[in-house]
Amino acid sequence: MLQTTYSSPLGQLILLADSTALLGLWYSDQAHVGAKYRLATIEHGTSPILQQTSRWLDAYFDGRKPAIDQLPVHPQTTPFRQQVYRVLTTIPYGSTMTYQQIADQLTKRNGHKTGSARAVGGAVAHNPIGIIIPCHRVVGANGSLTGYAGGLARKRYLLALEKA
């Protein structure tokens, strides 16, 4: 694994990848930074995946709407959270979805009740690949901006960038 930093309009981002996929993207000062990884022990450097991620972020912050599937991402987490993150990747650029809508989609996909809006909220809060797996596109039941590990000001910025 290697990590690098990316200077975004919202502050320093930490990018983490192995030889096959992006494993993490966090604001350096956010809640849950580093997830399960001990970032202090991981070498700083560059790799094709980290370079590709930086180019993706350049395009995103320039408003060019890069596709999520342009990057190999592999969040290391529970099966439930993996399902939530797959739903997040289907929320179109410039759109939002509620926690309950995500829970409803999981229930429909699995053919049985699969988590609650609260459980989805827990998964979203611990998203290890922020921005790219767009947890900022998740809003409260009434459309209100609710928690975001990077802070609500950053969430507002990202949604405004996307004209959501």
Question: How do the helices and strands line up, and which of them pair or pack?
Answer:
Layout: E1 2-8, E2 11-17, E3 22-27, H1 48-61, H2 79-88, E4 97-98, H3 99-110, H4 117-125, E5 138-139, H5 152-161
Cα separation of the termini: 35 Å
Examine the secondary-structure arrangement and name the CATH architecture of the largest domain. Orthogonal Bundle
Low-confidence stretches: none
Question: Mean of the pLDDT scores?
Answer: 95
The percent range for strand residues is: 5-15%
For the biggest β-sheet, the strand order reads 1-2-3
Treating each run of at least 4 consecutive H or I residues as one helix, how many helices?
5
Q: What class, by secondary structure content?
A: alpha+beta
Into which percent range does the helicity of residues fall?
A: 25-40%
CATH superfamily of the largest domain: Winged helix-like DNA-binding domain superfamily/Winged helix DNA-binding domain
Radius of gyration from CA coordinates: 15 Å
The count of strands amounts to 5
- Encode the helix/strand succession as letters: EEEHHEHHEH
Q: Please, what is the oligomeric state?
A: single chain
Q: How many domains make up the coordinates? A: 2
The CATH topology of the largest domain comes to Arc Repressor Mutant, subunit A
Assign the CATH class of the largest domain.
Answer: Mainly Alpha
Largest sheet features? 3 strands, antiparallel
Sum up the overall morphology in one term: globular
